[in-house]
Design goal:
This protein is mainly β. The chain has one domain. The strands form two sheets. The chain has a five-stranded antiparallel beta sheet, with helices on one face. A hairpin with a 2-residue loop joins strand 9 and strand 10.
């Protein structure tokens, strides 16, 4: 009887998870990362709200033009495109990964509290964005092929 009650409780509980997707598109001369997320109060919604100073969209390009961030959101959907070119703050590796770091000031983004979001696709693409102490760090990778 307890098992049945527990099952009934699980089935009747509202689903709170947001659906998301991430794609990492690698070329030695450029890496593009697309992140889409659906759901109110989802991580990407909050990220855009905080980095974009409350606006529904924003675009930022580093002064050396090696990092480009374009984001937009509606009430329940959000999307960001991150583009990375090799440079002093961006490393594109032969293992199909990218690591980049710069200051929020370099991207023209006002100082915000620390943020950390991460995404992983069923195809093995991964992307992490962290903001700490006025710096922003990106890490993206594709599944390593064997």
């Amino acid at each position: 009887m307890k098992m049945f009650s527990l099952l009934a409780l699980l089935i009747s509980a509202p689903v709170m998870a947001a659906s998301d997707s991430v794609g990492v598109f690698y070329r030695p001369e450029k890496v593009v990362v697309l992140v889409n997320e659906r759901g109110e109060e989802a991580d990407l919604q909050n990220l855009i709200r905080r980095l974009g100073a409350g606006k529904n969209s924003f675009q930022s390009i580093s002064q050396d033009k090696t990092i480009k961030v374009v984001c937009g959101k509606s009430e329940i959907e959000a999307s960001c495109t991150f583009t990375f070119f090799p440079g002093s703050n961006v490393t594109i590796n032969s293992n199909r990964s990218v690591e980049a770091q710069t200051t929020l000031e370099d991207l023209g983004i006002a100082l915000v509290d620390d943020i950390s979001v991460g995404y992983e696709s069923s195809m093995g693409d991964k992307f992490t964005l962290e903001v700490a102490n006025g710096n922003i760090h990106f890490l993206g990778s594709k599944k390593i092929l064997k």
